[in-house]
Amino acid sequence: MKEMNYEAAIEAILFTMGDSVPVDKIAGVLQISPADTRKIIRNMMDGYQEKTRGIKLIMLEDSVQLCTKPELYEAVIAIATQPKKHVLTEVLLETLSIVAYKQPVTRLEIEKIRGVKSDHAINKLLEYDLIMELGRLDAPGRPLLFGTTEEFLRCFGVQSVDELPMLSPDKLEEFKTEAQEEMQLNVQV
N or C: which end of the chain has fewer CB within 10 A? Predict the structure, then answer.
């Protein structure tokens, strides 16, 4: 590791690891002595003392860690507690619609309706707290059953799934026809 900027390398290591890292390990990676590594770290600590810096280095026994300066905790907490916006792609909306209208529903039933694997979509909807596991179906393999959550109701502005818009029989037939035509096109291609 010739011509390396040791401070930049230490900063990158500490940023990536998140937790404290033993000085000896850093020295081994940089291929320099632990004493030289400690000197570089002390120099970095001095540089982070400036008011324009939001981070600092702390020593924990014979390890070092990159941390936020305590006077900036409020700013970090304010950003960390802001609600995250989740993007619902067409795939996620399609999967969510199936769960909302067919619940309780299994992964296999969702995949049968969509015609493709739905693991990723289901996992994302679980992560976004829009669907949840309701239990297991009393059938071979005991597959999981999925349904919507209170968060789903809040996001879509309804008090219960009974308030979801119903499709007219004409619109339902139109969707079925489109789906069948799409399936025939896929078979021909």
Answer: C
Residue 66 DSSP SS3: strand
Same domain, 75 and 95: no
How is the beta sheet containing 144-148 ordered, strand by strand? 105-106, 144-148, 131-136
| pTM across the whole model | 0.50
Residue 101 and residue 173 in one domain: yes
> Residue 164 is part of which domain span?
90-188
* Parts of the chain with a pLDDT under 50: none
Are 126 and 99 spatial neighbours (Cβ–Cβ below 8 Å)? no
Q: Has residue 167 been placed in a domain?
A: yes
Cα gap 124→97, rounded to integer Å: 14
Whole-number pLDDT of residue 50: 86
Summarize pLDDT for 110-130 with one digit per residue, the tens: 999 888 999 999 999 999 999
Distance from C-alpha of 125 to C-alpha of 148, rounded to nearest angstrom: 9
Count of the separate structural domains present in the chain = 2
Neighbours of 180 (CB within 10 A): 10
In a domain, 84, yes or no: no
Spatial neighbors of 142 by CB under 8 A, at least 6 apart, are 136
